[in-house]
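Fig. S4 source data, part A: sequence.
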Amino acid sequence: MIRDRKPLPDSITLALAERQVSVRLRRNARAKKYILRLPLESDSPVLTVPKGGTLATAQKFVQKQSGWIEERLASRTPRADLVPGSHVPFRGQRHFIESAGRLRGLVEVRHDGPDPVLVVPGEPQAVPRKLLKFFKDEARKDLECAVARHAGRVDRKVAAISIRDTRSRWGSCASNGRLSFSWRLVLAPPEILDYVAAHEVAHLVHMDHSERFWQVCFDLAPHTRQAQKWLKAHGAQLHAVG
């Protein structure tokens, strides 16, 4: 039997009950089977096609998984855009975003209504960029403070702290003592950020997830289990911001 060896297109279209979605195709010579995933940052599913896979088989596979795709898209947390008039979490509390009406100045937090207000200077179209910088700066402040406190308790030195927008993990620790964290932790309640800081500092003591590591982690953050449950339940809401 002659198989279809035509080059794969970049994507194929799948018709769902109420919408159409574009499914991106990526051939991977090392893959053993077709793998479908839905990235956090996109509503476009990605199908990994193994060596020898064909377009016809890819289309049939995606069609069979249409129910799964529809359920996952329907269960997604709606995106929270960083625009005037919308709400966004900050340190675990809902904040209203307001344009300051002036071009210069810094982002300010005002407490004079039912919800705190993030007052952002500049043109309305600049609000997302300025708020993102504000969140990253505040995340760095909070994380540097939490890391210093925990590192002091275990007598370890931190080489550097970087703030990123990671999707697969909230923090990481390299063997050279460099710690990396997601800026989105500043959107969560402070005790959640504190747990992630403690978790990565504990890796400065044990670069694994052994019982010894978890003992250090629990010593630094007794609320570890509660924080893990919170991130599992609400992490998608943090990733939906912006």
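Fig. S4 source data, part B ends here. Residues 11-74 form one domain.
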